[in-house]
Specification:
The chain is α+β, with helices and mostly antiparallel strands. It contains two helices and three strands, in the order ββαβα. The protein has helices at 33-39, 59-64, and strands spanning 22-24, 30-32, 52-53. It has a three-stranded antiparallel sheet. A hairpin with a 5-residue loop joins strand 1 (22-24) and strand 2.
Amino acid sequence: MLELRCHCEGCGKALPPGAPDAMICSFECTFCADCAQRRFNDICPNCGGELARRPIRPRGLLEKYPASTTRRPLVGGA
């Protein structure tokens, strides 16, 4: 089950569960599309893996499997 992290780990932008611009790696590091493309060239700065579009969890399943509300440190401590 994907954690659906709540913000970009690059710039801090909010990325709610339905955000169409959320990108993740295989370890679920989460970035906005702008950071993923412009800052990191679609490569996760944490693990070196590919950043891909995060799938959107169906609304009905968000109640049973809610998104995370835990904020992670930003890359580079920004």
